[in-house]
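User: Quick sanity check before I run a bigger batch. Here is a single chain. Can you write out its predicted 3D structure?
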Amino acid sequence: MKKVVIGLSGGVDSSVAAYLLKEQGYDVIGLFMKNWHDDSVTISEECPWLEDSNDALIVAEKLGIPFQTIDLSSVYKERIVDYMFNEYEKGRTPNPDVLCNREIKFDVFLNIALQLGADYVATGHYCRKETLVNEDGKETFRLLSGIDKNKDQSYFLCQLSQEQLSRTLFPIGELTKPEVRKIASENDLITADKKDSQGLCFIGKVRLPEFLQQRLKPKKGVIVEVAPNIEQYQRQLPSFENKEEELAYFSEKPQYEIADGKIVGEHQGAHYFTKGQRKGLDVGGTKEPLFVIDTDVNENVIYTGQGKSHPGLYRRTLFVTNEELHWIRTDLELEVDETLEVMARIRYRQPLQKATLYKIDCGLYVDFEEKQSAITEGQFVAWYIDDELVGSGVIS
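Assistant: Done. Predicted structure follows.
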């Protein structure tokens, strides 16, 4: 009998995943990961870990599977929280959920599972895995989007490797959320009607500025409103010698100065804000809401523009360095000067967008057919062929 260790989070998805594995004849062990101790920055009722671990325990008892809580808080702080602070300090916006899967669930947690003699780890993610057998008998693993397009979580797994996928099961990937809740309800699982958790992976819903203030001190600066018709938006396109020159031009983000606009308010630290953000600016009196179009952490200035269609929010092309480039399907990896037509997204839940990948010596351009709103440094771009996620990278 194959042994599976499942990450029981105290939510309905992992509960049903554990139930399905047991039904399929696996020897199942439930582990709850405790990754966070500091409740001072969480909006408490949203994701108290104690309640979640109790729910996970009750589910495990109901299913008759062994259960244990493991404390990974020190490695979580080192690999996720410290990384987040460092990225925000640089004026970039990290995605802790993607990192959490790469560094914690499918690395530290996977290794603990293997030490317990497990053949696989399993999670309650809405995505699917498929195995291709090559001519030489070797296996290639495909990461596919979940059947439920409203809940598809493949994006969060965009940094997984073939090795990690070989040891992973996604029991609910073929189900929709209503079907998952129905199974939980029919089997009297305590989590059947439990609300989905929100916020940072394993921390819960936090007040981000307060969370960041643990390490990044408040620092008063100015908010500048940039008009939608400033000169740099109007400049004529240069003529390009080659495609690489054109892509480099379109991937460059505009550089702003205070003189490009007017000062409309103050903030407590540019590192607390991210591109595309609307809330938290506390500036009134504009015809349309202000959106952050850029942050300058060195000068501590936030640049904003009125309305969702402000040209400062949009760019066609982004770049990923070789160091931040990752292929799940290593057999599809591009060589220098090769291109690939894909569907891509730059954030979770964004509808997939047509794009072309261009490989150059030092990295990879992702060139979208249509301009994208709020391309944000530090976030992940993921690219798909049909419903298969084949690679990803950190936006430079």
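The chain has nine helices and 18 strands.

User: Great, the batch can go ahead then.
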